[in-house]
Specification:
Length: 193
């Protein structure tokens, strides 16, 4: 019995490891409910040069520390064809404030999507916040950067390196980002069961 259990555990963990995207991979599509009551999919952004996908939530202290920075990223880069799309993968039975009605109250000017379909697993997102910068390549989007927004998960005044912004600027200039990936720091995602 123990051997069967360990075999199943190995298969499950292998599937999870292989389902995670890497820099250079095609970005998985999604179709999720937005806070405006409409569904949003990655294909809705086909006229953009890229998309800043951020897995986040309402309750996590790190997500709260980054909230204004995420809003500012959208303000800065939406007009440059790199809009923000935030995705909340947390089941609100774990944390009530991650529920859809609380998401709506945020009143973000960018899509804030409820992930009850496990999109986080397709991307390999594990933290809130966890960033995936996508760049347009032909008809598809490709993963260009994975990780953290910057090097200061708590205090915005202590930021020395803006990893995500450096990656966006490099891509816009036809260059490879200085950092292809960094470690995402935040609360663990508590997915729907």
């Amino acid at each position: 019995m123990k051997t069967i259990y360990l075999t199943l555990l190995f298969i499950a963990s292998s599937f999870y490891a292989f389902s995670q995207v890497q820099v250079g991979d095609k970005a998985p599509d999604f179709e999720l409910l937005n806070t405006d009551g409409k569904t949003v999919s990655l294909s809705d952004f086909k006229k953009q040069d890229g998309v800043i996908v951020i897995f986040t939530c309402n309750h996590c202290p790190y997500a709260k520390f980054y909230e204004k920075r995420i809003i500012d990223l959208d303000k800065k880069y939406k007009s440059q064809k790199y809009p923000v799309v935030a995705i909340n993968s947390n089941d609100s039975t774990n944390y009530k404030t991650d529920g859809y009605s609380f998401m709506v109250e945020k009143n973000y000017k960018f899509p804030y999507l409820l992930d009850n379909k496990g999109v986080y697993a397709k991307y390999g997102a594990t933290k809130t916040p966890h960033v995936f910068l996508l760049k347009k390549t032909g008809k598809d989007f490709e993963i260009a950067y994975i990780g953290s927004i910057d090097d200061s998960p708590q205090d915005a005044n202590e930021v020395k390196e803006k990893y995500l912004e450096l990656a966006i600027e490099a891509i816009k200039n036809g260059e490879k980002p200085k950092y292809a990936s960094t470690k995402a720091i935040g609360c663990g995602i508590k997915p729907f069961k």
